[in-house]
Amino acid sequence: MADAAAKAAPQSEPSWRDSVPEATAADLENLLGTGMGAAREQLERNGGFLPFALVVENDGEVRLLTVSPADDGDEFDADSMIHDITELLRQKREEFRAAAIVCDITLTEENSDAIHVAAEHCSGAVFAAVLPYAPNRENGEWEFGDLAADANEPVVWVD
Fold first, then answer.
1. What is the pLDDT of residue 71?
2. β-pairing verdict for 52-57 and 62-65
3. Exposed (0-12), middle (13-18) or buried (19+): which is 116, by Cβ within 10 Å?
4. Alpha carbon distance 104, 132 (integer Å)
5. Alpha-carbon distance 134 to 41, whole Å?
6. What pLDDT, on a 0 to 100 scale, did the predictor assign at position 2?
7. pTM of the entire structure?
8. Positions in the chain short of pLDDT 50
9. d(CA 45, CA 51)
10. Which DSSP category does 75 fall into?
């Protein structure tokens, strides 16, 4: 009887996790969670954040990597910083097994800002997510939307 009930139960849609080894999924999820948490903390503390990277070193240690913005007065070029971070990750990719680039983006269709984390593994697996946010004008705190998966292409382990 239990077999019949199991067969009749609706199957959930396959997850991206089903297509990668457990260790790979764990690395990517670790980078995603750490990246989202660090960006939220900076946003809440400073009202914004500069692009940064996280890596899972070959020994499993997670490390933060940053680059300095070009000295253009009060403005900084986020695209240039992301380019520099990407180049740094490519140059040092033998030292780690997974990497994520964390940046602030604008979701044009939703007319919202969002934290974007694009993670990739040396095995070729990629995963990206966005977390929309907006200031609450009444209490001055940040409100966050729903975390959503996003499309992404590898940028570190490509030649």
1. 66
2. antiparallel
3. buried
4. 10
5. 14
6. 40
7. 0.85
8. 1-12
9. 16
10. B
What are the structure tokens assigned to 16, written together?
């991206």
Spatial contact of 98 and 119, defined as CB atoms under 8 Å apart: yes
pLDDT value at residue 77: 85
| H or E stretch covering 33 | helix 22-46
Residues in the chain: 159
Phi-psi region of 111 (alpha: psi -120 to 50; beta: other; left: phi over 0): left
125: left (phi over 0), alpha (psi -120 to 50) or beta: beta
For residue 39, give the nearest of 25, 27, 26, 50 by alpha carbon.
50
At 74, which amino acid appears?
D
Backbone angles phi, psi at 102, to 5 degrees: -115, 125
